[in-house]
Amino acid sequence: MIDTGLYQNQIDALDTLDIMNYERIFKIFELSVNSKDFYTYNILKRVDFPEIDNEFVEYRDVLNNTPLTILSYKIYGDIKSWWILYLLNKDKFVGAPFIVEGGTQIKYIKDSFRTSIYQDINNATTYGGRHY
To answer: For residue 4, what is the enclosing H or E element?
Structure first.
């Protein structure tokens, strides 16, 4: 049996994900084989960000080549928010997609708005496989 209608936090057999986790916004494929359950995310789904008003974002100059996980930790105190930095700044990635080159200015969501924006993303309607 294949089930694609549930998110990870709705499946009792799986750990609950924090709101900051990228995986939280995708539904799960569940496949049972020989009485064993296997779960996978639909990695073909795509998330696009609408333009975010300047009142919700701040800017940071990146001095040295830095992975998104490290920037997420420096800005938010966790590495889970790398994906939000990527989506907000994906036009600035030329070579290595998860490394911000030194001398680049990136934008990020102000910490005071982060949870509410993540919640909006999680509650967003999906059209044509894209979250809005």
So the answer is: strand 2-7
